Amino acid sequence: MFGNYQEMADFDFHNKTVCVTGAGRGIGKSLALRLAQLGAKVIAVSKTDENLKQLVAENPNIVPVCVDLSDWQATKDAIKPHLPIQYVVNNAAMAILDSFLDVKPEDFDTLFNINVRSIICISQEIARDLIARKLPGSIVNVSSQASAAALRDHSVYCSTKAAVDGLTRVMALELGAHQIRVNSVQPTVVLTDMGKIGWSDEKKAAGMLSKIPLNKFAEVEDVVEPIIFLLSDKSQMINGVGLPIDGGFLST
């Protein structure tokens, strides 16, 4: 009982609205449920209606928004009814892997539309409203260790995540004057259901683990909790930062 009370006192999101994109599964789903537990009104965005139904079944207080984030106007129209939104986590992302010489233009467009352009689209709509209302805010963009490290067959994905970190810094610079903070997190391999499938091969996993000083991959909670910290008032002077959550991968 005391632990729960202390937790709520440390991170209280009551009377706050948080938008989480890519909330249908993985990090986004766990984050949405955690924020709802901390008292937030959560606007959960996903393009897959079935995933949203499963999320709402776990917490009926979560507000589902089903929209394809690659559709600029549809995304803006979908988010407008839920304004004002004080906190945003741009978590939605895709990965299409191929060698550099085999990169296809349609894959380039798909990844940049979801991984980068959607951040601009949804954050513009929310930030403009906050500025008009003279309300502070906090935005966290989910990047990756791939933003700063070369990974084989990840040329476009790495490029999108480098763009996310560059965008984060400019957003922090321009929105900071309006008391809207913008930061990013840079996780290593995260053991979501998809991550477990992608890294279940012991030989493949061993190669990556050998580059991580802590010699382990991240659990979903390892990413969720730092995001909550960056959203919260506990990080009021943190702005424009890319936070590695990688067990030391980028430091070696």
Task: Note the topology.
Blueprint (H helix, E strand, L loop, with lengths): L1 H9 L6 E5 L4 H12 L3 E6 L2 H10 L4 E4 L5 H8 L7 E4 L14 H29 L3 E6 L12 H21 L4 E8 L5 H6 L3 H8 L10 H12 L10 E4 L7
Parallel strand pairs: 1-2, 1-4, 2-3, 4-5, 5-6, 6-7
Helix pairs in contact: 2-9, 4-5, 5-6
Overall number of strands: 7
Number of domains: 1
What is the molecular shape? globular
User: Low-confidence runs (pLDDT<50, min 5 residues)?
Assistant: 5-9
Major sheet size, sense and barrel closure: 7 strands, parallel
Question: Could you name the CATH class?
Answer: Alpha Beta
Order of strands across the widest beta sheet?
3-2-1-4-5-6-7
State which percent range the strand residues make up. Answer: 5-15%
Summing up helix and strand content along with how strands pair, one would put the structural category as alpha/beta
- How widely separated are the two ends? 41 Å
List keywords for this structure.
single chain; 252 residues; alpha/beta; Rossmann fold; 7-stranded parallel sheet; 46% helix; globular
